[in-house]
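G., before I forget:
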Amino acid sequence: MGSYFAKKKEERANRRAYELLMRETHGSSPKDRAKRLGKSVWENRFFYASLIPAMILLLIFAYEPMYGVILAFKRYSYKLGITGSPWVGFVNFNELFEQEEFWSAFRNTFVINLLKLGVSFPLTIILAVQINAIRSKPYKTFIQTCVYLPHFVSWVVVSGIIFSLFDESSGPIYNFLLSMGIKTNVFGDGNQFVSLLVLSDLWKEVGWGTIIYLAALSSIPPEYYEAAEIDGANIVQQFFCITLPELMPTMSIVLLLRVGSLIGGGFDQIYNLYNSQVYDKGDVIDTYLYRIGIGDGNFALGTAAGLFESLSNLVLLIGAAIIIARIKKKVE
Amino acid sequence: MARESKQLPTRSKRSSLRRIKTGRKIGRMVNAGLLLLLSATMLYPFIQILLKSFMTDTDIIEQNGILVWPSSWQIEGYKSIFASDSVYNVGHAFLVSIFVTAAMTLYQLTITTLAAYGLSKRKMPGKKWLYAFFIFTMYFGGGLIPYFILIRQLGLLNQIWVLIIPQFISVPNMLVMKSFFDNFPSEMIEAAKVDGASDFRIFVSVVLPLSKAVLATIALFIAVGVWNNWFTTMLFIQDPDLRPLAYVVQVIIDMSVGRNAQDGQTVQLIGKSIQYAAIIVSTVPIILVYPFLQKYFEKGVMIGSIKG
């Protein structure tokens, strides 16, 4: 910590010395400084110009809707538009928070995402280690091709596949489980529906999730394992003492991103699979927001729900970032 | 082997080493077997849909086990989805999808590459703010409804352009590309500068030709994303002639399962083979393209992730 401040101080001193030198050689008036800045900007004109298209489009399609969130505090009128609609304070939020359905969607979002994270996070790491252990290159490529494949298919297609697998007349999984004495009702029973969401998400994304870990695994020096072998460490010991610590930075990044999106998401998957029978366990904020906002046309309420979701996520992300930074500092 | 046994003098040690070795070998075989099983799990759902798309509906219902095989191959499902007088008109939707995918990939790749290169310049005034301008959109957004109102105000409702123009960048993709440009060998750029090349010239004839892997990767991500996008169509397009394949498949599955019927009962409205044929038609292009690009995108993703 001390050295960090010392370094900063030194940097500041250096900059100051540089500025003094520049003042002596080039003059110090604001005019001169503006001239220098102008020259520097002109030299980099190609780089600025290349940013312009993306920035204009971001301004229109990302920042304009951010301004649009003020609708959450207004009563929407089609004629007056967002800007002209009358302010109503927190009325929309009060209405939202009074709805049982909203809280159930909020809770479901959190529970489903937490379950998905709890199941897929460790399994992805195990799969990555397993793939990394394959010696034969063609076999490795073959396995990777197979496990990445579902990631590239849309949830629409996957939902069609799931309907076929669990179909009550022809579904192979439905009939297989039935022959074992288990009668499934994945589209009608809330808990079974949630299990379906978790498992189908695992099936679709587990392979793709390994890529980032495989990159980290390939950068572990093999000498570590050779040294451990000489010391007589077995495979399990090697995993916990070498592999896991080496994967820690990657794991913390992945965890941070996942925690930062715990509230929200899952629309494509759930919208294509759910029905009114499983709303109590399977409805999430995004699907709820779509139904009231677009389906019922209640724009102000939908905006309020969306704003609440965005802000909750932002808080979670910042919280997770702070906690991870603390842990890192302690470890060091 | 011979050298190893020379280093290990006692007999017991040698045998224990051999035991470890055979243990490792068995472990590796178990590992390979487990992964083979997993791969089968990944492929099985696709294969059974493929086979069932060539079966009659009665055949599909009769063969309700894990393993299926058409008792007679038929293509009625494909015939009916491709019929131009049918409500689905998959052939037309396929063409719409190809147009939208091609146009969008070119459009988004251009804007993403330019932005990534612009932000990869190490020192320029205001860089931090420009960077923040992009990053901020990753963590906060206006949400669905203000976006919907914006699109309506811009008059993009029910226009094919609504599928293209607003999807101009994905900031995470841009960051992958930026970290590639960050690591681009600066000696090459300096050398070109000494030769008197302008920044534009350097970008076009030095940087881009050496960035094929990352460009191919991002292009693949974009193309797959557009090909699979059904939500934008559901939100903004009513005209059946402007519907891309992804949305048509969604409609077919939706009607087929009839799950949005209010009573929660599943009602069969469209034959199974029709539904499965539509799924196959929309999936095949992805499956055909992707193994060829696998080598590229793995490299590209790793380039991005090494730097974090």
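The radius of gyration of chain A is 27 Å. Chain A has two domains: 1-43, 93-331.

More on Monday.
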